[in-house]
Design a protein that fits this description.
The chain is α/β, with parallel strands linked by helices. Helices cover about 40% and strands about 10% of the residues. It has eleven helices and eight strands. Helix 1 runs parallel beside helix 11 and helix 2 packs parallel to helix 9. Bound molecules: thiamine diphosphate (TPP) and magnesium ion. The site of thiamine diphosphate (TPP) has 15 residues, from strand 5.
Length: about 325
């Protein structure tokens, strides 16, 4: 069974499912009762938010780059980051994408245009603005056609560097797309306790009235993908998209909340949309899901082989 010939929502769903599986494997394996080489790296899970990354990655032109934050798993994976290098990095092995020294908050895979992550709140935007400037200064057609994406949390507009980056990008008309995953929380502080409703940074973005700043109220996968496509075609830069999401996990760590918020679970909605799109019995999807879950589980299992995935040695 393959995805060939299936409607786009099938591939989008399976991609979102893939990322959710990685996150659930991390949650399940974080505190193993057996094994002498457990995962120790602090992790910020993207459970509940995966569809944003999938929509953006599938909507941007070829040659686009991405920068991300402490909550980077969905961004790295949606950009096509190497799966084994991802898991090896979480286990602190030399085969990891940052040679085992960086962990979850320093994911990188330049081969696919995933240029790096930093846990300094706001820094993804500053890094991306430099990348977007480089894009403008070169004359390579594919590079020019791509965009530079900065994934960001809702705390990012509370930093100075967000506004400095936005100003510079607007001045130079840089192909910068800032994607804010607005889960309404910075660690555990809600938006209303951090930002003035009338005069705070989100209000200021709203007030600016720019057609290229878009605020999506618990959007579906398709609404995000369509909005990214529309604004890129509009070709006025920079672009800011804020998508309301629910985070189904604690801020840092493997523990999932039982909470499925206001929005429901978009992964479940995408699954239903995939089935409805074909009028097909769901068993095809189940076969695909089981195979994918098994494949991903095996990547984690492979970390038990310390010869294949050794510890790094001190430089
Ligand atoms: C400059 C800076 N200040 C404070 C912190 C501590 N810190 C880590 S994550 C975080 C909250 C981030 O919230 P948000 O951007 O909404 O991302 P989320 O965790 O909700 O995805 C803070 C304050 C930091 N990493 N960097
Ligand atoms: Mg947040």
């Amino acid at each position: 069974v393959t995805l060939e010939g299936m409607p786009d929502i099938w591939a989008a769903y399976m991609e979102t499912f893939r990322i959710r599986r990685f996150e659930l494997e991390i949650a399940n394996r974080y505190h193993p009762s057996d094994g002498d080489a457990p995962m120790r790296c602090p992790t910020h899970l993207s459970v509940g938010q995966e569809h944003v990354a999938v929509a953006v990655a599938r909507a941007v032109p070829a040659g686009s780059h991405a920068y991300s934050t402490h909550r980077a798993h969905s961004h790295y994976l949606s950009w096509g980051g190497d799966e084994t290098a991802f898991v090896a990095e979480l286990y602190g092995r030399v085969t990891g994408c940052a040679r085992g020294w960086g962990g979850s908050m320093h994911l990188i895979d330049e081969a696919v245009g995933f240029m790096g992550t930093s846990a300094i709140v706001g820094s993804s935007v500053s890094l991306a603005v430099g990348d977007a400037l480089a894009r403008q200064l070169t004359n390579e057609p594919e590079y020019d056609a791509g965009v530079t994406v900065a994934f960001a949390g809702d705390a990012v507009p509370e930093t100075g560097q967000f506004w400095e980056a936005l100003n510079f990008a607007a001045l130079k008309q840089l192909r910068l797309l800032i994607v804010i995953e607005n889960n309404g929380l910075a660690t555990s502080t809600i938006l209303d306790d951090r930002q003035s409703y009338h005069y705070g940074p989100m209000a200021a973005l709203h007030e600016s009235g720019f057609s290229r700043y878009s605020f999506l109220d618990f959007p579906t996968y398709s609404e995000i993908a369509d909005e990214v496509t529309r604004l890129i075609a509009n070709n006025v830069w920079p672009i800011v998209i804020s998508a309301d999401v629910d985070r189904f996990a604690e801020h840092v760590g493997p523990v999932l909340n039982d909470r499925v918020g206001e929005s429901g679970d978009e992964l479940v909605a995408m699954r239903k949309a995939a089935i409805d799109s074909m009028g097909d019995p769901p068993d095809i999807l189940e076969v695909l899901e089981l195979a994918e879950a098994k494949r991903i589980g095996e990547i984690f299992e492979s970390m038990n082989n310390l010869e294949a995935h050794p510890w790094p040695t001190a430089p």
